[in-house]
Amino acid sequence: MITVTGIFKSGSDAQRAALRLQSLVDRDRITVLRPGEKKAPPRSVAVIAAEQPGMGKAIGSVAGAAVGIAGGVEVAAAVTATVPGVGPVVALGMLGGALLGFFGAKAGAAIDRAASEGLPEDEFFVYEDALRHGRSVLVATAEDEGAAAAIRKILEREGAEAVDAESEMWWIGLRSAEEEHYTKSGAKFDGNEKFYRLGFEAALHAKYRCKEYDQILGEMQADLEEVQRRNPGARVEEPFVKGFERGRAHYEELCKKVPQ
Q: Of 101, 126, 231, 239, which shows the fewest CB atoms inside 10 Å?
């Protein structure tokens, strides 16, 4: 399964693109995430994807789900949760509960891990940043690269920004402050930025959330070794570890700023 993601300026743009995609893929393979209204209760919204077996508990643990008919259109309650560091988020679609759970919402063990197989967890921090700034995220899954390419064309035509482009904009917004922090010790940022950034981004991965530092040292070491393997002979450890520590601090600060 190949996951394709597009980031839109508004929820209405994302939902319009989701409707266009239904000519290519089943609607149960399309999920839209959008910022929720602060202090607003979950409400009924037009269905984009039907609930699949195993997702009921995940949805119920985030927000009570109800299905009915309104104006002749089938509707279902949005999957809604407050995501740490982001705020209220509404998810429409089969993978809504799983995505919110990975973001750190309190879906707990009820998340159907099989349903979320293939999701790019290392991109979730980009989705979070987009939602934090009022944008919406569309996630679609394709059977093969041909279908994925067709989905990308539609998303581009509908005005979506690619995740890679959003990731670069995210880093540009942080880079000056991180360079200043890194060079205070006398080290040069140029030449080390690549590995510092990889460490920073690794720290934002869902697997490290809500864990003490000593609990994640083994996994961090495995990530570091993988980066070293891909860059033989490079000086990786020092910038990667410093970036990782700053990434953890960055996430903690975001969580303090957004009401949980």
A: 231
Closest CA to 127 of 168, 85, 166: 166
Determine, yes or no, domain membership for 17: yes
pTM of the model: 0.79
Which amino acid makes up residue 12?
A: S
**What is the total count of domains within the chain?**
2
Report d(CA 160, CA 79) in Å as an integer: 23
Q: Which residues contact 203 (CB under 8 A, 6 or more apart)?
A: 243, 244, 245, 246, 247, 248, 250, 251
The domain of 252 spans 185-257
Query: Does one domain contain both 13 and 66?
Result: yes
Determine contact, residues 95/139, Cβ cutoff 8 Å: yes
Torsion over CA: 26, 28, 33, 36 (sign): positive
Q: What is the pLDDT of residues 3-44, one digit of tens each?
A: 999 999 999 999 999 999 998 998 888 999 999 876 544 443
Sign of the torsion angle spanned by Cα atoms 50, 135, 43, 65: positive
